[in-house]
Amino acid sequence: MNSKSKILLVIASLLLLLTFLFPIWSINLEAPQYPEGIGLKIWINQITGLKPNDLANINGLNHYIGMKEIVPDAILELKIMPFIIVFMIIFGLVTALTGKRFLVYLWIILFFILAAVGLYDFYMWEYDYGHNLNPHAAIKIPGMAYQPPLIGSKMLLNFNAISMPDIGFYALAFAVILAIIAIIISKKTISA
After folding, report:
1. What is the pTM of this model?
2. To which H or E segment does residue 151 belong?
3. Which of 44, 52, 157, 181 is the most buried (most CB within 10 A)?
């Protein structure tokens, strides 16, 4: 790999630090009783409300329809993800230092595998919360599930649930794009 490719890979690796500063996903709920909306921000290591009391308000609403309480400290993925991100940062930096292209390919492939597993896990988490309802809930609508969409919007009773990637996700995507550009630049240098 040439020096430009190595610099791009270093930048790509360091971009992953943004996931510690910004959420990777957000779920917003719009309803007449919440004109300014309520929502969740999902980080690599925590889940917070869009506003200070949103998580508590969402848990309160969820209680009435039988959904489990969202307890960030009980979600194993939020404990594991920071270590995975740190590993990917170190792996990317070591790859840039060694300049071995096959390691860049491995870094990119590993990224896509982690992204696929992460999205699947997130979908299953949403499925569990939206389908495994308490049968003794105050509000029961036969056949109704409350799973928010993985991406996009969906009406859940009178709430429009909007699930979208956030800044941290875009930092991850841009990191992969930079790594791919580094490979392309590296190949052009060899063939020139």
Report:
1. 0.87
2. none
3. 44
